[in-house]
Amino acid sequence: MQLFYHPQLDQSVSQFTFPEEESKHIVRVLRKKVGDQLMVTNGKGFLFTTEIISSEPKRCKAQVLKAQKKHQKMHWFHMAVAPTKTNDRFEWFLEKATEIGINEITPIFCEHSERKTVKKERLEKVLLSAMKQSLRTYLPILNDAISYNDFLKKEHSGLLFIAHCEEDEKVELKRRVAPDKDITILIGPEGDFSTQEIKSAKERGFLPVSLGDSRLRTETAALVACTTVNLINNG
């Protein structure tokens, strides 16, 4: 099955037109024609069975045959992670996290961050492509990048964790995660969180956790956290 995307679709829509870029891909690349059925998601949980009724390359039009809602899991998983020095490594994390399952991502800039800017539009395209490729119907929320201290000032509910490499009293993440509980976890840059950043997180209720005995790259640590949360909630 191949999945397509149209953010404006909902249960009230009977006919719709794909955006120009998606239309070109459907008609010119995939050579779909009138009568062919396409599976479409709006990124908000709905999966639509549709049929092409007009195959113009710039304005492919379809009608909705069936709509079904795939419900979210009971927990909400939010990861605040420092962008890596190279873009491709951070994009790799976003792709894999979407495939595994994550609800919300906030890029954070820390004291030791080597990257202080991100191109949100490009990252959103990575998330969208990964959602379609993995046949998921929920598009993860990508928040604007924010400083670490400003992120801590926000209200956060559920289980709060910070993964860092300093010698500290830490429990393995897999022993802290509980099924069906909202989770927010902080993942630092290549140079790790500073001592003051760790202290500030603790003061805001974030519990220190370990992701294993090895020292992991930022994107690897983030992916290990994603996998751990996913396994606990699918066990």
UniProtKB/TrEMBL annotation:
Domain Ribosomal RNA small subunit methyltransferase E PUA-like: 19-64
InterPro entries reported in the protein's UniProt record: Alpha/beta_knot_MTases (IPR029028), PUA-like_sf (IPR015947), RsmE (IPR006700), RsmE_MTase_dom (IPR046886), RsmE_PUA-like (IPR046887), tRNA_m1G_MTases_N (IPR029026)
Reactions that this protein is recorded to catalyse: uridine(1498) in 16S rRNA + S-adenosyl-L-methionine = N(3)-methyluridine(1498) in 16S rRNA + S-adenosyl-L-homocysteine + H(+)
Pfam families in alphabetical order: Methyltrans_RNA, PUA_4
Cell compartment(s), UniProt: Cytoplasm
UniProt entry keywords in alphabetical sequence: Cytoplasm, Methyltransferase, rRNA processing, S-adenosyl-L-methionine, Transferase
EC number(s) from the headed UniProt entry: 2.1.1.193
GO biological process, one term: methylation
Top class in the EC scheme: transferase
GO molecular function annotations of the record: methyltransferase activity
Residue ranges annotated for the Ribosomal RNA small subunit methyltransferase E methyltransferase domain, each copy included: 76-229
Subcellular location, principal: cytoplasm
Record has rRNA-binding as a keyword: no
Family assignment from sequence similarity: Belongs to the RNA methyltransferase RsmE family.
Known role: Specifically methylates the N3 position of the uracil ring of uridine 1498 (m3U1498) in 16S rRNA. Acts on the fully assembled 30S ribosomal subunit.
Protein's UniProt name: Ribosomal RNA small subunit methyltransferase E
